[in-house]
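User: I'm writing a tutorial on reading structure tokens. Could you give me a worked example: one chain, its sequence, then its tokens, then a sentence or two explaining what the tokens reveal?
Assistant: Sure. Here is the example chain.
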Amino acid sequence: MIVPIFLLYLLEFGQYIEDHNENGHTPLMEAGSAGHVEVARVLLENGAGINTHSNEFKESALTLACYKGIVPRLLLDSGAQVNMPADSFESPLTLAACGGHVELAALLIERGANLEEVNDEGYTPLMEAAREVQVVFLLFLEAHMLRVKFYLTRLRC
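And here are its predicted structure tokens:
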């Protein structure tokens, strides 16, 4: 692929990997948002900050990637925080819900995503999925919550 080679060239000649654009996004955030897995991999291998946040909306590479659903596994495997910081607007799980990415939601939950985390408007991932009419996602969350309740009931017995 040509883009990572060009990235390596830029990085070799001193391009700062943590530059922020007018939206406060770093190159890794832009790669995550655009769904460019190989570009994200090259940036991570060259020291890109995995949990850097934008200034205004406190977005991370993971939150930006979760709406598209393409890059998050790489970011999670590289140490991205699965739950949002207190001053952030949206959690990765909420954005996966908005995008209807069921497999990504399963991965986030497996990695410890908080199902009850609310965004800046007070919405949980379940509420966002309902608002965005993500029927498959709603069924997935409902099934997951029922499994959790079943296991908790069995533990109490």
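What the tokens reveal: Residues 2-156 form a domain with the Serine Threonine Protein Phosphatase 5, Tetratricopeptide repeat fold (CATH 1.25.40.20). The chain has one domain: 2-156.
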